[in-house]
Amino acid sequence: MDLNMLRQFLVVARLEHLSRAAEELRVAQPSLSRTIARLESDLGAPLFDRAGRLRLNAAGELFRGHVDRALGELEAGRRAVAEVTSEGPGSVRLASETFLTFTDPLAAYKQAHPDIEIELHQMPAAEMAHRLIARDVDLCAASQPIHSRSGLESVQLLDEAVWLATPQDHPLAGRDSVTVEELADQPFISAHRGHWQRRLLDRLFAARDLTPRIVCEGDEPSAIAELIRAGLGIGLVPALARRSSPDAPVAWIRVDDPQCRRTLSLYWAAGNRLSTAARLMLTTLAGWNWATGEPQERR
Fold first, then answer.
1. Helix (H) or strand (E) holding 254
2. CATH for 218
3. Exposure check for the chain: N or C terminus, fewer CB within 10 A?
4. Backbone angles phi and psi of 116, in degrees to 5
5. What does the pLDDT read at residue 271?
6. Which residues contact 10 (CB under 8 A, 6 or more apart)?
7. Is residue 77 part of a domain?
8. Mean pLDDT over all residues of the chain?
9. Which of 65, 84, 108 represents a domain boundary (last residue)?
């Protein structure tokens, strides 16, 4: 059992698909299959269920947590030594579901610390806990809760209303508010399942035993407002996006439900000694005034 074998296992565990894992790792699929089989032989137990689609089983999930922590500690040690021995300011790795929210604070951070290298990793919230524990990233920002048995620390960055956006000529345009029941038959433009906007939409409807009618779903939340403007449907858009595009040719309507909100939080591994660059990033994001687009101290 070597480090390369463990790293390959983590990729297969994350993707639960041998051919896609082999493509990401740039190895031959038969070779990767033999590596996983050899690892299972060393452990004396299968790590995946192979009936139909490849699935990580209970033993695999348990082992994955230990591998995440072990490789994470090695990576943390490597970065700590590099920070101590290097004269440079280092780097920070930030993951998020989308980076449109962070354009201004990232620009301010880079202006204040021009020598620090910023790595941005876009990923679904479901991957974030494992990537934090494995020290693949330093900080993760998500608009939905992230859970981990190993424990994470977090700080809330933003809590805001989420609005319904419609084309300007839509029958609901001009209304101050609308109930979820009134939206039952409306065509929705939404992000894919797993994204916070889709989770919120599904949750609002499920609370009323309803199912939203999705006519378009994709991986580009930033395109939702544009598709709404084009008249293809309606959708949920956070208040921050509304403030950043006040002249967008869509109608904004309040959803009559107190749960129609977004809470954006920043996460990092509990007990993890953040690098200087990561601590500066945490301070910048936690101290940002999202309403004005400036650091808090500038108010």
1. strand 250-255
2. 3.40.190.290
3. C
4. -85, 130
5. 73
6. 64, 67, 68, 71, 130, 134
7. no
8. 88
9. 65
CA 205/CA 278 separation, integer angstroms: 38
Cβ neighbours for 102, distance < 8 A, ≥ 6 positions apart = 94, 96, 141, 285
Query: Quick one: pLDDT band at residue 299, thresholds 50, 70, 90?
Result: very low
* Nearest partner of 109 among 292, 287, 298, judged by Cα: 287
In a domain, 72, yes or no: no
Residue 72, burial from CB neighbour count under 10 angstroms (0-12, 13-18, 19+): buried
The 3-state DSSP class for residue 152 equals strand
Q: Which domain holds residue 238?
A: 158-262
Instruction: Match 């070779």 to its residue by tokens.
Output: 31
pLDDT digits (tens, 9 = 90+) for 13-26: 988 999 999 999 99
**Chain mean position to CA 295:** 23
What's the one-letter identity of residue 87?
E
Angle at Cα 127 formed by Cα 270 and Cα 92, nearest 5°? 60
Map tokens 């993951």 to a residue. 95
How many CA atoms within 13 Å lie on the side-chain side of 206? 7
Total domain count for the chain?
3
Whether residues 148 and 183 share a domain: the answer is no
Whether the CB-CB separation of 211 and 138 falls below 8 Å is answered with no
How many other C-beta atoms can be found within 10 angstroms of the C-beta atom of residue 11?
16
What predicted TM-score, i.e. pTM, was given to this entire model?
0.72
Exposed, middle or buried: residue 131 (CB in 10 Å: 0-12, 13-18, 19+)? Answer: buried
State how far the alpha carbon of 253 is from the alpha carbons of 184, 220, 228, 235, in Å. 16, 22, 13, 10
